[in-house]
Amino acid sequence: MAEPMRDSVAAQRERLMEGLRIYGGHYAELSRRFAAWLGLHSTDATAVLEIAAAEERGTPLSPARLSERISLSTGATTALLNRLEAAGHVTRSREHADRRVITLRSGPHIQERADEFFGPLAGRLDAAMSHYPPELLERFESFVTDLNATMDAHLAEQGTGA
Fold this sequence. Notes:
Layout: H1 2-38, H2 42-57, H3 63-70, H4 74-86, E1 90-93, E2 103-106, H5 110-129, H6 134-158
Antiparallel strand pairs: 1-2
Helix pairs in contact: 1-2, 2-4, 3-4
């Protein structure tokens, strides 16, 4: 009796992981379309979104942290930031008491453009999640946090080598 239950739990986990992989694919495709919509390379658009999202959370990024978030070397990140700054998509400022610390900010139009592009989807996702009780969403949030921590640990163990 325990064997069929174990098989059904394993199948459920596989279905859940497949659903998360599909969600990740959709997120990647949306990012690609956002980049095309802005006329940017996908890596540049990803960087702009990371900078804007960090600002929204109240934790603006430094170039080093952006480099980690988008998996680029510091040199490649500097070149990327030079392009984005020249185009007016981002600014670099020295807001910290330690003047060596650089803070990245999105350009004035970026949040507006991101809201225009992603706003309709955000509304649809919010409507989809509204069908679930807060307790279930809280449990799912914990689940996703655990998965992300596991992935972070695995990536850290692998290091930056290919």
